[in-house]
Amino acid sequence: MRTFKIPHVFIFLFWIIILCSVLSYVIPSGKYDRKPKDSQKTKQTVVKPESYTEIPKHYSLKSVLIGEEVEGKASPTSLLGVFAAIPKGLSDSAALVFYVFLIGAVFTLIHYTGALNAALFSLIERFNTRPKQLFFILYILVFSGSAFLGLLMEVIPLIPIFLFLAKRMGYDRMFGFGMVGVPIFLGWSTGVTNPFTVLIAQSVAELPPGSGIGLRLVLYVVCAGLGFYFLMRYGERVRMNPSLSHLQDDPFNLEEYGNFEKVVLTRCHVRILGFFVASYAAILVAVQLLGWRLIEMSACFVCIAIVVTFLAGMSGDEAMAALTKGLEIMIVPALVVGVARGIYVVLQEAQVIDSILHYASSSLMSMPLIIAGEGMLLFQSVLNFFIPSASGQALVSMPLMTPLSDILGLSRQTAVLAFILGDGLSNIIIPTNGVLMAMLGVAKVPFEKWFKFVLPLFLASMVVAMGFVAVAILTGY
């Protein structure tokens, strides 16, 4: 780990684009016939399982350099196509990129108002003599924010506050960081109404937004309980015997974070938080009842930013400074969506996606449905190492997993469930997850120490995930 250096996510994805371009010369090209189908008041396009045909490839100097289309043949990715995949991917996912920018800007604006910090300090005062109750409330707030709203990197500025709380209550740095790291990633994995995972995956799978929420709510309860039990069991052991800490030599000094000045919760803060929670709840209702998509949701976040500015009494310049800062923070995660989409562009234009689908389905067709479903879960977990962007991974993998589930006789909801669990749970442990590495850097927790600490929870969570996938298959979820 001391010599291993993780490349920047853009470089990493670009190398994957190059690898996929090379594979377009190796993997046979082919296609399935597709047919329209009405399901749950939505129109779907499904694969005809027995219709796969292989397409001969066209090779020429022109096709290798700049590309050349020949009727009846497939063209592997050209040199120009490698670079064109990135702008094509950004163009294909423009609505999603804009949405990611907006949601990050709005959360930064709310953070600038001081409402989040004020609410936390108010809770600390109220539960000073009842730390376990306070930890549970904070844990559920973070867990729910991730599961329902898709919070992730927005909690990074709050890490010093959680560390301060852990030290004040007699716990170690690992426990303080775990109070953020465990619920944010486990909550993300349940994907109850997470706009970055389940809503995007269901959109690709041509399912109604937010559908199948019942099983995900049960998953939410189980994972929340598992994570909190794991944290408190460790925390109490360390509080009673500090030698059991994973960070025994850590002096746990917090001077590098500056002074923790108390922020008094005001009526203004309450109005801001209340308005935002109510507004987001209304958006989620509209998504499920009115069929809203990313454009309508983005429009609502523009309105939220305007109202929060007035509620906070901020000037236009102050609001724009906060929003601009939020946009700067979201540059990488937003653009990663488009770059990751470039991987799909390369595979799709070379007409190898259906071939991958054909060979994958052929290997799984002879297996029992439950084993095939677990295979989809493991595939998503491995893929997340290479494409750690959830929304980007959805755009790469779900076009494969959706027709694969049709061929295997699995429901598309099961394919979505396998995606959100495979993507989410592995986030808590993989070094290619930029958000995790950034959070560990802020908390001053070495990755290898975190890996050792969280590995048992990850393994237990994967067992739970496999159980839920099995239940989904057996119940026809």
Polypeptide structure, described:
- By secondary structure, the protein is mainly alpha-helical.
- Helices cover 68% and strands 4% of the residues.
- The chain has 20 helices and four strands.
- It has helices spanning 9-23, 61-65, 79-92, 94-112, 115-126, 131-149, 159-168, 173-190, 198-204, 213-240, 267-289, 294-312, 316-329, 331-349, 353-365, 369-386, 390-408, 412-426, 434-443, 447-475; strands at residues 29-31, 34-39, 42-47, 53-55.
- The protein has a two-stranded antiparallel sheet with strand order 1-4. A two-stranded antiparallel ribbon has the order 2-3.
- A hairpin with a 2-residue loop joins β2 and β3.
- The radius of gyration is 23 Å and the shape is globular.
- The two termini are 41 Å apart.
- The model has no long low-confidence stretch (mean pLDDT 83).
Work out the helix count. Answer: 20
Number of strands: 4
Q: So what's the overall shape?
A: globular
Cα distance spanning the termini: 41 Å
Q: Strand share of the residues?
A: under 5%
How big is the Rg? 23 Å
| Main beta-sheet annotation | 2 strands, antiparallel
The low-pLDDT segments are: none
What are the secondary-structure elements, in order, as H or E? HEEEEHHHHHHHHHHHHHHHHHHH
Order of neighbouring strands in the sheet with most strands: 1-4
On the 0 to 100 scale, the average pLDDT is 83
Helix percentage range:
55-70%
Find the structural class using helix and strand composition.
Answer: mainly alpha
